[in-house]
Write a structure and sequence with these properties.
single chain; seven-stranded mixed beta sheet; four-stranded antiparallel beta sheet; 11 strands; 53% strand
Length: 118
């Protein structure tokens, strides 16, 4: 059974940094997709960043480009999100997701809260 467990969320002041980690147990996703989503209160869940395939091609939503960096562990069962220059609008529950195919997320973590104070 595959489980994704996130860690690293918390409360930070605007301009600060946090690093989220996600550990997958049960399988690796080095040839699939691993990504981070977020959901703020009253809003829909949105993609933040993803890393795809063995080449590790990355994608970021426009609002986090230049501030967030997604990376993957060599074994393909961990994914990280380094978040710098955080803004209050980054406040949300952040979810890790993974899939064995590059276009489909099969597994989701339970989420970790990120709160950025102004």
């Amino acid at each position: 059974q595959v489980q994704l467990v996130e860690s690293g969320g918390g409360l930070v002041q605007a301009g600060g940094s946090l690093r989220l980690s996600c550990a997958a147990s049960g399988r690796a996703f080095s040839s699939g997709v691993m990504g981070w989503f977020r959901q703020a209160p009253g809003k829909e869940r949105e993609i933040v960043a993803r890393i795809v395939g063995s080449a590790g091609v990355t994608f970021y939503r426009d609002s986090v480009k230049g501030r967030f960096t997604i990376s993957r562990g060599n074994a393909g069962n961990t994914v990280y999100l380094q978040m710098n220059s955080l803004k209050p609008e980054d406040t949300a529950v952040y979810y890790c997701a993974a899939g064995s195919l590059i276009y489909k997320y099969d597994y989701w973590g339970q989420g970790t809260q990120v709160t950025v104070s102004s």
